[in-house]
Amino acid sequence: MDYAANLAMTLPELVLGVGAVLLMMVSAWGGPGATRAVSWVSVAILAGAGIALFGPASGGAVAFGGLYHADAFAGFAKVLIYVATAVSIILAPGFFERSAGDDLRPEYPVLMLLSACGMGMMVSAGDLLTLYIGLELQSLAAYVLASFVRRDLRSAEAGLKYFVLGALASGILLYGVSLVYGFSGTTLFDGIAQAYAAEASASTRSLGLVFGLVFVFAGLAFKISAVPFHMWTPDVYEGAPTPVTAFFASAPKVAAMGLAVRVAVEAMGPAIFEWRQIVIFAALASIVLGAVGAIGQTNVKRLLAYSSINNVGFALIGLAAGTREGVAGVLTYMAIYVAMTLGCFLVVLRMRDAQGRQVETIASLSGLSRSRPGLAAAMAMFMFSLAGIPPLFGFYAKFAVFDAAVRAGLFPLAAVGIAASVIGAYYYLRVVKTMYFDDPAPEYTREGNGVVEGGLIAVAAVIVSPLGYLTIPALAAWSLTAAQALF
């Protein structure tokens, strides 16, 4: 295959990379005054990258000798990544103007584009080194974004914690990569799968390959904030600027989950017995700890952080199945999860006191149904949907992964997951109870970019409403096609 054909398959990353470099130059000359223009151009670049997916970039071929996979699975994940990134860019100007003065600079959307480029490399990786480069490109941009508000001590603390713990996780992952390479002799996923298959046919399993698998999954567990590598999530979510927190809870979560699925199925598929045990433990521990940890929270962003840990556990149930239906269930879950999570953070952005300052306490939602009935109704829909209560669309997300687990014969896992979901319903319903039955708190201000944020809230609410079930035929077909690309 010639070089031009290889480049055509990586066109989405080329669009994002070249666009980010050009906008970086514009930012250097234009200064803070160019922020809004750079932000909207960044959204246009993300749209262009999405359009570039319709072609060789999702045609099912491999580029650069197997280093990059341009298949339907990557295309599915990239659509979710680009949408979540674009929403996070759109929300930022209004938030920084009201909460952080003039802190928003044009570097913010540029960092978002670079992070999206790294996430694209993650979900298209066909080699351990491509995996690591994409992961670090995404992470380096994320560290800066977490500490973007320089005068806010919480933001600086969030960036530092994320950097230190992220560096530790990267070291663990790299050590696992070195072990896998040392005992398989290759970094390509296809070659690694052959090494694991050869070991599976032998009477004994190489301890080096087993330990490599464990360390690789430990590093990936940090990126998806699965237990026991979740400790950074509540502090970073609370301290980072709210648009950045919305970004962390959506796009990187999709990318890391997509990367974990690709590594498990493509590179380590023959070792399913070994990694399934790790995934089942992480799934159940994340579901239980995410639910229990959220019960005592008073800050809504910390509550949503534990909610993200809880939801990662449910998505991992689909991965534990190790089947095409299981992978399709993971993709379906992540698609619906992005809509629910972005909707929640859009509501959080509207939580402002009379002076326009961000309010993050759950108690401030008291009586919201009387002062802002539309906002309360939207938040209630997102909470019920995250809890998996029918007829909202979040129920179908949980049904998809539980159905895949049952079809794979993992009845105990599905049963425990269903039972544990009841724990999580408690803190979601507590928020709804606060909004509809508690005495009213001081009313939120109506200042700000109400049209854009209100419109996005309405779109997210429609997606998670029963109307979302109308998309099931298309969503199921798309997710199954994407999952088949890995088998």
TrEMBL record:
Bilayer disposition of the protein: Multi-pass membrane protein
Keywords from the UniProt entry: Cell membrane, Membrane, NAD, Quinone, Translocase, Transmembrane, Transmembrane helix, Transport, Ubiquinone
Task: Give the reactions, separated by semicolons, that this protein catalyses.
Answer: a quinone + NADH + 5 H(+)(in) = a quinol + NAD(+) + 4 H(+)(out)
Every copy of the NADH:quinone oxidoreductase/Mrp antiporter transmembrane domain together lies at: 125-424
Q: Cellular component terms, GO, for this chain's entry?
A: endomembrane system; plasma membrane
Recorded GO molecular functions are: NADH dehydrogenase (quinone) (non-electrogenic) activity; NADH dehydrogenase (ubiquinone) activity; quinone binding
- What EC number(s) does this enzyme carry? 7.1.1.-
Source taxon at top rank: Bacteria
Q: Which Pfam families match?
A: Proton_antipo_M (PF00361)
Per UniProt, subcellular location reads as:
Cell membrane; Endomembrane system; Membrane
Q: Where are the transmembrane segments?
A: 14-31, 43-67, 79-96, 108-125, 162-183, 209-232, 244-265, 277-296, 327-349, 375-397, 409-429, 450-472
Which BP terms in the Gene Ontology apply to this protein?
Answer: ATP synthesis coupled electron transport
In which broad location class does this protein mainly occur, judging by the first location in its UniProt entry?
Answer: membrane
Q: What does this protein do?
A: NDH-1 shuttles electrons from NADH, via FMN and iron-sulfur (Fe-S) centers, to quinones in the respiratory chain. The immediate electron acceptor for the enzyme in this species is believed to be ubiquinone. Couples the redox reaction to proton translocation (for every two electrons transferred, four hydrogen ions are translocated across the cytoplasmic membrane), and thus conserves the redox energy in a proton gradient.
Recorded hits in PANTHER family, A to Z, give:
NADH DEHYDROGENASE (PTHR22773)
Report quaternary structure and partners. Answer: NDH-1 is composed of 14 different subunits. Subunits NuoA, H, J, K, L, M, N constitute the membrane sector of the complex.
Q: Which family does it belong to?
A: Belongs to the complex I subunit 2 family.
Q: What is this protein called?
A: NADH-quinone oxidoreductase subunit N
